[in-house]
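User: I'll paste a sequence; please echo it back and then give the predicted structure.

Assistant: Echoing your sequence first, then the prediction.
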Amino acid sequence: MSKLSKNLKSANEKLEKEKRYSVKDAVELAKSAKFAKFDESLDIAVNLGVDPTKADQMVRGSVVLPAGTGKKMRILVFAKGEKEIEAKNAGADIIGNDELIEKIKGGWLEFDVAIATPDMMGSIGKVARVLGPRGLMPNPKSGTVTLDIVKAIDEVRKGKVEFRVDKGGVIHAPIGRVSFDEAKLAENANALLDAVIRLKPSTAKGTYITGITLSTTMGPGIKVDEAAAVSAL
């Protein structure tokens, strides 16, 4: 058995397989089960009772995590003229317009989030097939297509994360680093859950949140008592 397998087995032994934990207890377990030598990300997976193939049940949005993400984001801004200057003064890492679109066409993707002014969206559409599948396409619903470039950059720096339900009806999002203290991680998890609940489609029937799991980059999934988590918000 490899060292990684032994470590994962040891981490799994700390869990009661059938038990569903509170958010606070799940965070504590995730931290105690850590075995990687790097500062792992703590991620949340939220199973939704929606049909993501239906446009009116697509759940997509963003939230600024109270304690941030612990990750330095490389911010790209598509803009022209005065908005380029605003972006530079606000601390964007990469700023430009048509020349950036050409670079992306050539396979360049050295950024974590893209923000754009509305007038740039026609041109950005040329690389939508590249950016979309990677979660990098600017979108008005997530606040990354806007004239308020300064606000958008500030939110990303403070810990804004975007989320979108996948084909399996699950939302995956980072909620911080294992090095964060437990209270901050729990606060971030609750902020994400609250944002997801607020976006419940009116056409979704039955139970909306059907499962919640926390896991570190290398660690096992820890099931959360979804009913208790939702009622505590």
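The first helix runs from residue 3 to 13. DSSP finds nine helices and nine strands in the chain.
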